[in-house]
């Protein structure tokens, strides 16, 4: 069959043998089968079938790009849904990990970190940081005269997030079992969306005759993204510390 991305005559399968783009054969067949049975099936069965299809698609998407993340340069906006799921999964993993760590550390002081301040709000803020990074990356591609849509930018960011999710989980596990020096994997994974992923996207295509130099665009990108990230982190840390000191002061005054 003909690959819709690179126009290469490839064998039938989930991905193109030339560029790695998703061919959407199995998913389309399942979707057509679901549509043919939709009239005779109840609504809850349709929902479960859709969830099952999306789950299988995401699993194949995740494993494919976990094995070969460099093929993100050939990805199209067709993979935007699993890419968004990858971003949400990364934000969820990071925020819930830090919530568990902070809550376990302050338990010895008899202080309760609220689920809203400790997890929900940081999770929303982290998603907003991702949205800001995506928009800033998209603007940077326009400044460097690259032909890329916003949907393609979202897809590429989601794909490049996958290996950093693995690095973060590895760092958490190795730190938990007290293997020295591997805690450095955690900050590396957290810097992925701010430094590495935008660099991968901006440097993946050939130089253009027009547009601003990519080095200067990347430097400006780093400055702006670090300022925004520091503002969000300051707010998150201030809220957590406020909860800790508020609980300590409350216990102090109650004792008198």
Could you explain the architecture of this structure?
This is Zinc ribbon domain-containing protein. The chain crosses the membrane at residues 80-103, 123-145, 157-179, 185-203, 215-233. By secondary structure, this protein is mostly helical. Helix content is 70%, strand content 0%. It has seven helices and no strands.
What labels would you give this structure?
mainly alpha, single chain, 256 residues, 7 helices, globular
- H/E element order: HHHHHHH
Average pLDDT figure: 79
Query: How would you sum up the major sheet?
Result: none
Care to count the β-strands? 0
Identify low-pLDDT runs. Answer: 244-256
Estimate the helix proportion, in percent: 55-70%
Organism: Virgibacillus dokdonensis
Keywords: Membrane, Transmembrane, Transmembrane helix
Transmembrane segments: 80-103, 123-145, 157-179, 185-203, 215-233
Protein name: Zinc ribbon domain-containing protein
């Amino acid at each position: 069959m003909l690959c819709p991305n690179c126009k290469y005559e490839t064998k039938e399968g989930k991905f193109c043998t030339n560029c790695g783009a998703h061919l959407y054969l199995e998913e389309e067949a399942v979707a057509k089968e679901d549509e043919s049975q939709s009239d005779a099936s109840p609504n809850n069965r349709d929902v479960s079938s859709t969830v099952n299809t999306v789950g299988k698609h995401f699993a194949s998407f995740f494993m494919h790009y976990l094995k070969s993340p460099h093929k993100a340069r050939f990805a199209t906006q067709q993979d935007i849904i699993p890419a968004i799921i990858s971003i949400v999964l990364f934000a969820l993993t990071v925020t819930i990990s830090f919530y568990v760590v902070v809550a376990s550390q302050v338990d010895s002081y008899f202080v309760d970190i609220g689920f809203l301040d400790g997890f929900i709000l940081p999770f929303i803020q982290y998603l907003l940081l991702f949205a800001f990074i995506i928009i800033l990356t998209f603007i940077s591609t326009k400044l460097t005269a690259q032909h890329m849509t916003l949907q393609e930018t979202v897809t590429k960011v989601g794909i490049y997030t996958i290996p950093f999710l693995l690095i973060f989980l590895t760092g958490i596990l190795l730190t938990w079992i007290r293997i020295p020096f591997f805690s450095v994997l955690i900050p590396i994974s957290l810097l992925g969306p701010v430094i590495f992923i935008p660099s991968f996207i901006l440097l993946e295509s050939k130089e253009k005759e027009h547009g601003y130099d990519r080095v200067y665009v990347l430097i400006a990108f780093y400055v702006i993204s670090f300022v925004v990230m520091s503002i969000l982190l300051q707010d998150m840390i201030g809220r957590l510390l406020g909860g800790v000191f508020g609980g300590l002061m409350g216990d102090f005054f109650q004792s008198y």
